[in-house]
UniProtKB/TrEMBL annotation:
Protein name: DUF72 domain-containing protein
Pfam families in the record: DUF72
Domain of life, source organism: Bacteria
Stretches the record annotates as Disordered: 1-43
Gene3D superfamilies attached to this UniProt entry: Protein of unknown function UPF0759
InterPro entries for the chain: DUF72, UPF0759_sf
Length: 351
């Protein structure tokens, strides 16, 4: 990859060229609830937390894993206890400034549910929230995940606002970081008619309320599972919509290097990235990864090539004053908190 991945826009003020690492400033932290206590962190992790670019938010996919005891939790806690009360302890970790709310993909949440999450985190924390599959999946699926029929409300603008965007804004407010529309793999009926999918996507994004009044830091990001989307035409569509591409590190898609040309076409702009699954497991390897990596307390399969490539993209983005939201799953290397720590080291101490 070229040394400067994202050249500075000539209209951008020169003062935005570098994000100087500084201690974070934020409101008082909420204390952990119901006895879920945060684990003490080493001086090295504390230092990394202050040395990371201020525009960067690292996080994980959910926070409900008992296997993170000693890494995030000071003690043994059940998954139900962590689901209800672990978020406040999660935010005590110096490297964790965002989290992906994946629960909303499976069933729309209410504004009151989002507000309960917002009440547990400090002012400087931001959420990445997935749109319900009701809106973003082209298929209606059975309990086994298999598609049964075409979804008649796929990318429906009214449904997207009522069941997703408005409750998120009402509940999270300024603590919203990313509205994430993850398009599930398309059936052949739609994959062969991509311009129609793009037209639907365009209509839906145009119908969304303005985010800035309620959530000034918020970004709209589109994540895909079909490599056919990774084209100059799709990049131009995203530009017109005022959205960005979610860099998705998943075996269904090309490696990071082959997705970067799309990001370059969107420059300057924020980075949204989700690292899902180690490539060794293949496009349908979630069950295998879960079986091998559980209880997710160790880096079982370190992927230094992907980590250092992503670290380079993060540095290039934040050095020009742009924000970056990056989450890592347990299934990427075996343990999301340790992946986050390794990623922070690769950013602060480039090889």
């Amino acid at each position: 990859m070229q040394d400067d991945l994202f050249q500075q826009d000539p209209t951008e003020p020169s003062g935005a060229q570098e994000a100087v690492p500084q201690p974070r400033t934020e409101g008082p932290r909420k204390r952990p609830l119901s006895g879920v206590r945060p684990a003490a962190q080493t001086p090295e992790i504390q230092h990394l937390g202050t040395a990371l670019p201020r525009g960067l938010r690292l996080g994980t996919s959910s926070w409900t894993y008992p296997g993170w005891s000693g890494l995030l939790w000071d003690g043994e806690f059940s998954e139900p206890a962590l689901s209800k009360h672990g978020l406040a302890a999660y935010t005590e970790h110096p490297l964790l400034r965002t989290v992906s709310l994946d629960r909303s993909f499976y069933r729309p949440l209410t504004a009151a549910q989002y507000a309960r999450y917002a009440a547990q985190v400090p002012d400087d924390f931001r959420f990445i929230v997935k749109a319900p599959s009701l809106v973003t999946d082209a298929l209606v699926r059975g309990e086994d995940g298999r598609g049964m029929q075409l979804n008649p409300v796929f990318l429906d603008p009214t449904l997207a606002v009522q069941e997703y965007v408005q409750p998120v804004l009402d509940g999270l407010g300024r603590k919203l970081g990313v509205l994430l529309f993850q398009l599930s793999p398309l059936p052949p009926q739609w994959l062969n008619r991509l311009p129609e999918v793009w037209a639907r996507l365009d209509d839906m994004i145009k119908a969304l309320p303005r985010l800035a009044p309620e959530a000034p830091d918020a970004v709209i990001a589109i994540e895909v599972r079909d490599p056919q989307f990774i084209t100059p035409e799709f990049a131009e569509l995203l530009k017109r919509m005022g959205a960005t591409y979610c860099l998705s590190l998943h075996p269904k898609l090309p490696p990071i290097e082959r997705q970067l040309p799309l990001l370059r076409r969107l420059w300057p702009g924020p980075l949204v990235c989700r690292w899902h699954l180690h490539r060794k497991h293949g496009p349908f390897g979630y069950a295998e990864a879960e079986k091998i990596y559980a209880p997710f307390h160790a880096l079982a399969d370190p992927d230094s090539d992907t980590r250092h490539a992503l670290a380079k993209v993060i540095r290039a983005t934040t050095a020009h004053g742009q924000s970056a939201f990056v989450t890592i799953s347990n299934n990427a290397e075996g343990c999301a908190p340790l992946s986050i720590q390794a990623m922070a080291q690769a950013i602060v101490y480039p090889a």
